[in-house]
Amino acid sequence: MKMKTLMLGAAASMALTAPAMAGRGDDGHLNIIFWQAPSIMNPYLSGGTKELSAASMVIEPLARYDENGNMVPWLAQEIPTVENGGVSEDLKSITWKLKPGLKWSDGSPVTSEDVKFTWEYCTAEGGGCAQTEKFGNVVAVETPDDLTVVVKFDVPKPFPYAPFVGAQAPIIQKAQFKDCMGPKAPECSEQNFAPIGTGPFVVTEFRPNDVITLKANENYREADKPAFATVTFKGGGDATAAARAVLETGEFDYAWNLQLAPDVLKKMQEAGKGKVVSSFGTLVERIMINLTDPDPKWGDERSTVKHPHPFLTDPAVRKALSMAIDRPLLVEIGYGPAGKLTCNVLPAPEIYASKANDACLQQDIEGAKKVLDEAGWVPGPDGVRQKDGVRLSILYQTSTNAVRQDFQALIKEWWKQIGVETELRNIDASVFFGSDPGSPDTFQKFYADVEMYANNFDGTDPESYMRNWRCDQIPSPENQWQGNNMPRYCNPEYDALTDEMAKTGELQKRAELAKAMNDMLMQNYIMLPLVYRGNVSAHSNSLGGVKINAWDSELWNVADWYRVK
């Protein structure tokens, strides 16, 4: 029986052309502001959205997702399927065909060897690749000729589109990165700051955590694109200043991730210089629980699996922390129409959204107290609960912005009501979401008890995303803190579910497995979902071609942007 490959909402091809408004470079300069500044241009060395977005202007995947979640060919000629012969009948290999004539920005040809090298680079031992889950079950990448790439899996893969698809898995040039394998990867500053790419722009200067300047790629495959000759990609500041720079002063053309109260954005938009745009994908603001001990006394072993957390390993404590949170209030004050209630880390597409955890929608302070009482955590003289000499005292960290600090203040008060002491810490977003393995302040290092941020995934299939919480995804000194399993959760039963999903073809069964993984994380309170967020950005009225995309990089079609005349 022929088994069809899965592409939920995917299309094999789609025209992605903007109005023919200008030739290459005719529209002059483009100003983009990300108040979280990129620290690197290599998404394989950072899981931060800001790095993925900036890099997507320069390096590209074989295929990506459009604004509706449809899979579309990019560097590849078409999306391989069983029907067109691109996916083998046994589902253990997928064959991609590169578009002929592709060139790197340095003028050299793009070949299948570059694609194969990208896999070798990310899976090299000691490399600390931030996207290893994209290459799960890949055992070989073969290159029969310069334009053909055959990806082989060790199990049948009904969804074989994780490798080399989306902003998280672009192709890098072998000639440029060949001496940057394994432990050498983070040392290659020139390559990591200015990758040679196939995208519409080329880096001319990169100042980490500050400004990127770019120019149009003279070797871009579409002769009349991009319309802009140069780009300034400004980082830093805060969401308020970024929004104002587009909506009120008109200084910038595009501002990303405007985490501001809805009434604030509405008032800014009334200035008439730009408009707010939003799109719902899979973005969830959440609190991550550290199951390991971040105490500095452990030195280089702090926040590693060698030292379990003194009280957050108790499920009762984690459950009580969740029960104390008023999620409807957080949605109302933080996001308004750009936020939805959720009790899941996997809120969409609808087929994958579990209904098994909806108890979290109702705050229950008294219930949380009872859970702690029954677990033996009793209030001490200062009101802070303790047991066996251990006090429930939490360091709660996040990145710096107004909405997150409002959330911190509210949650601190709710936790105080149940007898938990909380110290708040906020870190500049460029540092918090940075890629420096030597920094003590990154969200991967997690030198705190809990931390808050948002996360999502490319496309509409959650297989790779749910692999983030496998045992082998735990950040550690050995992988240069680049894993995606921030809570340091390790459960062989969970890993087995990811293995099962990897070889399951029937869509409903895949949905059941995804929900089971989500429910295992939620019902063990490994993380506490707070808000299902829409992506909210803004662009000037003079900028055309923007299609905000919650399924890929927001800058996915920057080659099609143009100046409205």
Largest sheet: 11 strands, mixed
The CATH superfamily of the domain at 281-534 is known as Dipeptide-binding Protein, Domain 3
In CATH, the topology of the domain at 281-534 is named Dipeptide-binding Protein, domain 3
Counting helices, strands and paired strands, the structural category is alpha+beta
Head-to-tail CA distance between termini: 56 Å
CATH class of the domain at 281-534: Alpha Beta
CA radius of gyration is 23 Å
Strand content: 15-25%
CATH architecture of the domain at 281-534: Roll
In words, what does this structure look like?
The chain is α+β, with helices and mostly antiparallel strands and 565 residues long. The chain has a domain of 254 residues: Dipeptide-binding Protein, domain 3, CATH 3.10.105.10. It is built from 14 helices and 21 strands. The strands form 5 sheets. Strands 1, 7, 8, 9, 10, 11, 12, 16, 17, 18 and 19 form an 11-stranded mixed beta sheet that branches. Strand 2 and strand 3 form a beta hairpin. Helix 7 packs antiparallel against helix 9 and helix 13 packs antiparallel against helix 14. The N terminus is likely disordered.
Features:
single chain; 565 residues; alpha+beta; Dipeptide-binding Protein, domain 3; 11-stranded mixed sheet; 3-stranded antiparallel sheet; 14 helices; 21 strands; disordered N terminus
Please render the helix and strand layout as text:
Elements: E1 29-34, H1 49-55, E2 63-65, E3 71-73, E4 93-97, H2 112-123, E5 138-145, E6 148-153, H3 174-177, H4 189-193, E7 201-206, E8 211-216, E9 230-235, H5 239-247, E10 254-255, H6 262-269, E11 274-289, H7 315-323, H8 327-334, E12 339-340, H9 365-374, E13 378-379, E14 385-387, E15 390-391, E16 393-399, H10 402-417, E17 421-427, H11 429-432, E18 450-455, H12 463-466, H13 492-502, H14 507-523, E19 527-540, E20 543-544, E21 562-563
Helix pairs in contact: 7-9, 13-14
